[in-house]
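Figure 6 in text form: structure in, sequence out.
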């Protein structure tokens, strides 16, 4: 039913839950798993500046810091897949708008399912901009699964 599953990851608990659900489906349908992470400098800045639940004043992270943080998130996703006895077929990291990058990945690899967490690290920004999951669900040309 699903031969290729794209999972948008950001390192948040909802994102990790979405990946676990995608892995369960991949085991059932013998599917490929493709991870997509679109690093957002403001999210990295918040994560780097957060102390005891409060955001500290910080400068925006360098490109290198953003890349290192993104690689950690993708490696964490690969570790979750490995716990499910799966290997990630491919992981993608590109800067841009998460909705556009997830859709482009799905179209590029011929995915028939996109899985995202309902609320990730962009939760506060989504109040103003709209959520990534909503955007993906609206624009995707394949099935979408939103995990709470």
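Output sequence:
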């Amino acid at each position: 039913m699903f031969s290729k599953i794209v999972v948008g990851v950001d390192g948040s608990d909802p994102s990790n839950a979405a990946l676990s659900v995608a892995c369960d489906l991949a085991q059932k349908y013998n599917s490929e798993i493709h991870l997509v992470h679109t690093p957002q400098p403001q999210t990295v800045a918040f994560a780097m500046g957060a102390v005891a639940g409060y955001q500290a004043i910080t400068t925006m992270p360098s490109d290198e810091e953003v890349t290192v943080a993104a690689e950690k998130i993708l490696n964490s996703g690969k570790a979750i897949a490995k716990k499910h006895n799966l290997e990630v077929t491919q992981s993608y990291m590109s800067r841009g708008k998460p909705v556009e990058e997830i859709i482009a990945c799905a179209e590029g690899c011929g995915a028939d399912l996109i899985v995202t967490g309902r609320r990730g690290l962009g939760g506060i920004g989504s109040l103003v901009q709209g959520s990534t999951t909503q955007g993906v669900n609206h624009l995707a040309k394949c099935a979408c699964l939103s995990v709470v």
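Caption detail: The two ends are 22 Å apart (CA to CA).
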